[in-house]
Every structure is written in C-alpha cells, then in structure tokens.
Design brief:
alpha/beta, Rossmann fold, seven-stranded parallel β-sheet, 7 strands, about 45% helix
C-alpha cells in the first residue's frame, strides 16, 4: 500500500460500525492501518467486528456502545476516543436508520427519531471532533449521506430524504468554514447497497426491481462503498474538499 493510501499512525472514529457500510468501512480502514474507535448501539455487533479486525489485521479497535441520539453519550465517546489514541485524525459518520412510512403516515415522534439519528447526531459528532481538529490544524470528516441526499429515497420516507439532503448541506458548509484550518469535510452518497438494514426493510420483489433499475444491474456490496470512504479519509484525496461523492452504479447521472 502506497503512503498516500496508508492510515498508519492515524486514528479516528467510525459510527454505525456494527453493521452495513459502517462495518465494512471499519474493516477496510483497519486494513489500511488505522487505529479505530467503533461506535454503535449494538454491543454484540461491535464485539464481532472488533474480533474480526483483530483476526484479520492484528489491530485492536476501541469500542464504544452508545446511543448517538444522546448528546452526552456522543460527547463521551469522542472524549474516550481522544483519550485512548491521543488524537482524532478522522471521523466517518456512518450511523443511520431507515423508516418507510409515507408522508401522511409519519408521526412527529418518528420524524424526530429519524432526524435525530440521521442528522442531529452527525452535527454533534462533527462539532465535538472539529474542536479537536481545529486545535491540531488537520483532520478529515466523511459524512455518509445517501443517493436520497441527491434526489429522493426509493425506500425511505420523506424524513429520511430530508435528513440526507441536510447532511450534504452541513458537509459543504463545514468544508468551507474549516478548510482554512487544514480540515477536509466531504459528503458521500452511496446508492443501493445491500446491507442488513435494507434487507430487513425490503421485499425480494423490491430488491429485484431496484437492481433492474440500476444501470450496473445489481446492488452494491458494502465493501465497495468502504473502499471509496477509505480513499476520502486518506491523503490520496487531499484536494477533495466540500464534495458530494456519488457511488450508485449509474442510478443518478448529472
């Protein structure tokens, strides 16, 4: 692995690391040599991915079981990561949830849950991490949005689409504000990716229809998305700032 693609001597946080794109990202960043703090509400899932990382790369990740909708828990997880590794070089905001109710069926409680999990938590993580990165004069943040943040969701509800659009906007604003401090912020918008969350919320008929509607002809594997996140975290993407990177198999061409 070239120096540009190496994350040796760098450490960071991956949220939503127990499953899906977050899990694949954790595995790939460990392969790149990064020290990792893995955050998720699923304690058992975190233990499993941590064990997999240790077996594959010899790296022992630091795991934090936390509800990212709890602001105090987010702040504690950032503080714990910094205390454990001494610094935070990158943050990958990958955690999120999917809800499928049509607009007129969305209760305010569900709206708040989706917005808190898919947007407010990312805001708090970014704010806490940026305080440290600004002092250090360096850092990278990748906010994992969605194809829904570029158009609208085929599977999720209006609250999901709204949160993902807002996350793209937040990323662009942070990129402009913090680039002068040596910090890069980008949004990543994966398209149809076969994660456990998707499989639990989607019928086989719908899975087949989405695959057929994608020019590439099939769903992405989470590791394919993780490879792009690894690139965005690495120094190989040093000139990519405030971008919205698409990875959707041709489902959106602009």
């Amino acid at each position: 692995m070239t120096q540009q693609f190496s994350l040796l001597n760098k450490s960071g946080i991956v949220t939503g690391a127990a499953s899906g794109i977050g899990r694949a990202t954790a595995l790939y960043l460990a392969e790149m040599g990064a020290g990792l703090t893995l955050v998720d509400l699923d304690a058992e899932g975190l233990k499993q991915v941590a064990a997999q990382i240790e077996t594959a790369s010899g790296i022992t990740p630091y795991i934090v079981t936390a509800n990212i909708c709890d602001e105090a828990a987010v702040k504690k997880s950032v503080q714990a990561a910094c205390s454990h590794f001494g610094t935070i070089d990158f943050l990958v905001n990958c955690a999120g949830i999917l809800r499928r109710n049509s607009f007129l069926e969305i209760e305010t409680e569900e709206w708040d849950l989706v917005m808190n999990t898919n947007l407010r938590a990312q805001f708090v993580f970014c704010q806490e991490v940026l305080r440290l990165m600004k002092d250090n004069g360096r850092g990278v943040i990748v906010n994992v949005a969605s194809l829904a943040g570029r158009t609208c969701s085929l599977l999720g509800g209006a609250h999901y689409t709204t949160a993902k659009h807002a996350l793209v906007g937040l990323s662009r604003h942070l990129a402009r504000e913090f680039a002068p401090h040596g910090i890069r912020v980008n949004a990543f918008c994966p398209g149809a990716t076969l994660t456990s969350m998707v499989e639990a919320n989607t019928s086989q008929e719908e899975l087949d229809a989405v695959a057929a509607a994608t020019p590439r002809g099939h769903w992405a594997d989470p590791i394919e998305q993780a490879h792009i996140i690894g690139f965005l975290v690495s120094d190989a993407s040093v000139n990519i700032v405030g971008a919205c990177i698409d990875s959707n198999g041709g489902a959106l061409m602009v």
